[in-house]
Design goal:
This protein has eleven helices and twelve strands. By secondary structure, the protein is α/β, with parallel strands linked by helices. The termini are far apart. About 35% of the residues are buried.
């Protein structure tokens, strides 16, 4: 701070960076304008005062597992389960780990986390403090955030939904909004990103009856295989998974022809699992708000999908017109009123 001429700064301490930020704020309050703590802790190990902490006898096994998984992307199952299935993110994160340090250095660094205990420092923190913690964080459990809130005088505590430990995945807009409002007194309205996209909805035909016939374990296995197939085809055709709705998917594409071909490939692939999906596609302007999508095009695609028959890929006339010359063939399915959508729309089924 001296080197760049900064007299006071707002500190943000995340995970293992939190204890250092807390120690600085307690030691140099005149240099700290505010303190923001995200998914962090004062002591990580379990004891009588920290029943939600990590058991000491499990530390060696945890460190051995970390060393084995470092650089593979396997740690995402713990620190970012919402994107653990995203192969592109997994590859990026694995490379990020390898470029940061080797497995041995990573293990040594994480071992120091279990030696940290700054609980005695907390009452000495007298700067404005915001504590954010995700309620189902798998890596650093939410009890750590609650403990900080109870022991830092005047701290504001906000418990956020979600299970991701990494602050830059999941619902980042809410987290950033809390930080912005705490530091500035106001919160900006989330900026929307409007783009033209092809929206896909799918769902398994007769899922309720199939689940009842297979039982919980069998249905869970089949659903897992279905999800794996769909995600593989989405990656192959550069689709973007937006959400899973139990037995279905919501995805977007930047090209309608690829969207149609991907949907057909999904239908053929899941048929080998002994199931059929119905699917609907529409192209229109959508709005990205964080990781979610909104807009009339999303509603239209959902309504089109609801009209599709078993194994059928149904598209709006917009999609058909946009893929002219692509070699894709369609059969007209007539005019339809789509609930909540103005006018009637001509729909077409893709010929496989």
């Amino acid at each position: 701070m001296d080197a760049v001429g900064s007299q006071r700064a707002a500190l943000i301490g995340v995970a293992e960076g939190g204890p250092m930020a807390m120690l600085f704020a307690a030691t140099y309050p005149e240099r700290t304008s505010a303190l923001v703590l995200v998914n962090t802790f004062a002591r990580l190990l379990r004891d009588a005062d920290c029943g939600y902490g990590y058991p000491a006898d499990r530390v060696p096994k945890a460190l051995a597992g970390l060393e084995e998984l470092w650089g593979t992307g396997g740690l995402l199952n713990l620190v970012a389960p919402s994107v653990a299935h995203d192969e592109r993110f997994r590859r990026w994160y694995a490379r990020y780990e390898r470029l940061a340090m080797g497995p041995g250095a990573a293990t040594a660094m994480f071992a120091t986390m279990f030696e940290i205990d700054i609980r005695h420092v907390l009452p000495a923190i007298r700067v404005p403090t915001l504590i954010l913690h995700r309620s189902r964080d798998r890596h650093i459990r939410v009890g750590h955030g609650r403990y900080l809130a109870e022991h830092i005088p005047g701290a504001k505590y906000v418990e956020l939904p979600g299970e991701d430990h990494l602050f830059y995945v999941g619902d980042t807009e809410t987290m950033l909004g809390e930080i912005e409002e705490f530091l500035t007194g106001t919160r900006s309205a989330p900026e929307s990103d409007r783009v033209l996209a092809t929206v896909l909805f799918t769902d398994i035909v007769g899922s309720t009856e199939r689940a009842a016939a297979l039982g919980d374990a069998g249905w869970r296995d089949l659903l897992g295989a279905h999800h794996e197939v769909v995600r593989r085809e989405l990656e192959r055709y550069r689709g973007r998974e937006i959400d899973t709705t139990g037995d279905g998917f919501l995805a977007t594409f930047d090209g309608p022809a690829r969207a149609v071909r991907c949907t057909c490939a999904i239908g053929q692939a899941v048929r080998r699992l002994g199931i059929d999906v119905r699917a609907g596609l529409h192209t229109g302007e959508i709005e990205f708000v964080g990781e979610r999508v909104a807009g009339i095009a999303v509603h239209m695609a959902a309504r089109v999908a609801a009209l599709a028959g078993p194994g059928e890929v149904l598209v709006s006339s917009t999609v058909k017109d946009l893929v002219a010359g692509s070699g894709l063939r369609f059969v007209e399915r007539g005019m339809h009123a789509l609930k909540g959508v103005p006018d009637e729309w001509r729909l077409f089924a893709v010929e496989h």
